[in-house]
């Protein structure tokens, strides 16, 4: 199935079911990222401009779909659980349990902000719900920040489609630039992490070899065999 097929399916869903169809498409987008909200939301705004649904219904249904999809991923994180995820991290190359512990501590302090802002960042919009579930963030709190972040994102894109009318596809072009920028930043961050971790591993191995060699000497001088 190509991207054009997915886009055609989304368009058909919105045209057939109206605002509830847009909400359903957004919920599926959370679970299946190749379905882009950057297509669904402006399309819903365009449909509202054509009188096929009200603007308020477009915003409410798409936000409801966003929250429903986020809750499903929150549940996935809760089922996965902290201990299972910690065990997975322990087996990953270049990763250490300490990395997981630091991330966990950071999320405990900034989880609410991460969920709120994450709902407005491509790629992370869906993923941010998983660590919230792993950490068992209170559901009420999760819903509050997820709904707020999703509503802002949805309003911007629905209104853009509403204003652009027949040119609603232009929203997808600009949103694509934002997504590419996020991917580039993530790739750079990952490359820096790998480079620093490999350098650290090399240093640790060098220090270990030096320590092993040092154990074969006495005060820095090689041991001499004892004459008998």
Give a nutshell description of this structure.
By secondary structure, the chain is mostly helical. 80% of the residues lie in helices and 2% in strands.
SSE blueprint:
Elements: H1 3-17, H2 19-31, H3 37-49, H4 55-91, H5 97-118, H6 124-127, H7 129-134, H8 139-164, H9 169-214, E1 217-218, E2 221-222
Antiparallel strand pairs: 1-2
Subcellular location: Cell membrane
Membrane topology: Multi-pass membrane protein
InterPro entries: DedA_domain, VTT_dom
Tell me about the largest β-sheet.
Answer: 2 strands, antiparallel
Based on CA atoms alone, the radius of gyration comes out at 25 Å
- Could you say how many structural domains there are in total? 1
- Number of alpha- plus pi-helical segments: 9
Q: SS-based structural class?
A: mainly alpha
Query: How much of the polypeptide forms β-strand, as a percent range?
Result: under 5%
- Given as residue ranges, the uncertain stretches (5+ residues, pLDDT < 50) are none
N- to C-terminal separation? 82 Å
Mean pLDDT value: 81
> Care to count the β-strands?
2
Summarize the helix and strand pattern as letters.
HHHHHHHHHEE
Strand order of the largest sheet: 1-2
Q: Shape from CA axes? A: elongated
Helix content: over 70%
Characterize the structure shown.
- The chain is mainly α.
- Helices cover 80% and strands 2% of the residues.
- The longest helix is centred in the last third of the chain and has 46 residues.
- The chain has one domain.
- α1 runs parallel beside α3, α2 runs parallel beside α4 and α5 crosses α8.
- The chain is built from nine helices and two strands.
- A two-stranded antiparallel sheet has the order 1-2.
- It is elongated and about 80 Å long.
- Belongs to the DedA family.
- This is DedA family protein.
- It is a multi-pass membrane protein.
């Amino acid at each position: 199935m190509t991207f054009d097929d997915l886009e055609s399916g989304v368009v058909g869903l919105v045209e057939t079911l109206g605002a509830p169809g847009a909400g359903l498409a957004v919920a599926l987008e959370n679970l299946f990222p190749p379905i882009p909200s950057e297509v669904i939301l402006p399309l819903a705004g365009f449909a509202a401009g054509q009188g096929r649904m009200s603007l308020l219904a477009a915003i409410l249904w798409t936000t409801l779909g966003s929250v429903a999809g986020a809750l499903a991923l929150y549940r996935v994180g809760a089922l996965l659980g902290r201990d299972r995820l910690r065990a997975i991290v322990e087996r990953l190359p270049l990763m250490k349990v300490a990395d997981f512990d630091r991330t966990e501590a950071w999320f405990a302090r900034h989880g609410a902000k991460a969920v709120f802002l994450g709902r407005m960042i491509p790629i992370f919009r869906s993923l941010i719900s998983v660590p919230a579930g792993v950490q068992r963030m209170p559901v009420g709190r999760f819903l509050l920040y997820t709904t707020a972040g999703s509503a802002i994102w949805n309003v911007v894109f629905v209104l853009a489609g509403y204003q652009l009318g027949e040119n609603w596809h232009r929203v997808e072009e600009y949103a694509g630039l934002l997504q590419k920028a996020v991917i580039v930043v993530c790739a750079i961050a990952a490359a820096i992490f790998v480079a620093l971790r490999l350098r650290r591993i090399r240093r640790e191995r060098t220090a270990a070899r030096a320590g092993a060699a040092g154990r074969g000497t006495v005060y820095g001088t090689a041991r001499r065999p004892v004459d008998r």
